[in-house]
């Protein structure tokens, strides 16, 4: 495959993954009182297929969509946007770009270190949703923890400090999202990598 064909293939695959990111951002799975989103799955797949740049691009797509949801789709996001729009941009966008980027870095580093691609695939598939949760919550706490909105929520959750707030806020829902993202991203990335001969 020529360099030009590879560029076209990369652009096509990233466009499809970006479209999937946009779609799944608006259709969370609601079950057993949980609302599980699968938005980090295409980000993880892109990071595995195309490294840090692919992960960063798709993380950026997720971040922009997440920010746009604060314009009315997400009541919680809309409230925080009303408090400080610039901080909300920081909470939503750079955190997701960094999560996708680092998942790609991990994949590339481990891919070079092992004969099999399995450790790299497993690690990057897990890293993407973990980093997303970690960076988003860290930015949220640093930016908005002292606001009345978060303090009221922390009080309702029974959180005595920022760490407990993160644990209780993320809770089972975040853990299920991380596990689901890991379980789905791994086989998808493995199959696509083989099909695309990457």
For the biggest β-sheet, the strand order reads: 1-2
User: pLDDT average, as an integer?
Assistant: 89
Poorly predicted parts? none
Helix content: over 70%
CATH architecture: Orthogonal Bundle
Give the number of helices: 7
CATH topology: Arp2/3 complex 21 kDa subunit ARPC3
Question: What profile does the largest beta sheet have?
Answer: 2 strands, antiparallel
Task: Tell me the β content.
Answer: under 5%
Give Rg in angstroms.
Answer: 17 Å
Structure description:
This protein is mainly alpha-helical. The chain has a single domain, classed as Arp2/3 complex 21 kDa subunit ARPC3, CATH 1.10.1760. Helices cover 82% and strands 3% of the residues. It is built from 7 helices and 2 strands; from the N terminus they run H-E-E-H-H-H-H-H-H. It has a two-stranded antiparallel ribbon with strand order 1-2. Strand 1 and strand 2 form a beta hairpin. Helix 2 packs antiparallel against helix 4 and helix 2 packs parallel to helix 5. It is elongated, with a radius of gyration of 17 Å. 36% of the residues are buried.
């Amino acid at each position: 495959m020529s360099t030009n064909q590879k560029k076209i293939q990369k652009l096509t695959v990233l466009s499809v993954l970006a479209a999937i990111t946009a779609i799944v951002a608006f259709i969370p799975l609601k079950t057993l009182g949980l609302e599980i989103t699968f938005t980090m799955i295409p980000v993880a797949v892109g990071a595995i297929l195309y490294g840090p740049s692919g992960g960063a691009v798709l993380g950026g797509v997720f971040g922009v969509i997440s920010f746009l949801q604060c314009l009315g789709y997400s009541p919680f996001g809309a409230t925080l946007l009303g408090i400080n729009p610039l901080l909300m941009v920081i909470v939503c966008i750079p955190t997701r770009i960094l999560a996708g980027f680092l998942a790609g870095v991990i994949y590339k580093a481990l891919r070079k270190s092992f004969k099999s691609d399995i450790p790299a695939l497993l690690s990057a598939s897990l890293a993407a949703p973990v980093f997303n949760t970690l960076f988003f919550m860290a930015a949220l706490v640093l930016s908005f923890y002292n606001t009345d909105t978060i303090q009221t929520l922390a009080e309702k959750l029974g959180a005595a400090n920022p760490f407990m707030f993160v644990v209780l806020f993320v809770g089972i829902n975040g853990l299920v999202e991380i596990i689901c993202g890991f379980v789905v991203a791994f086989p998808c990335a493995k199959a696509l990598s083989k099909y695309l001969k990457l």
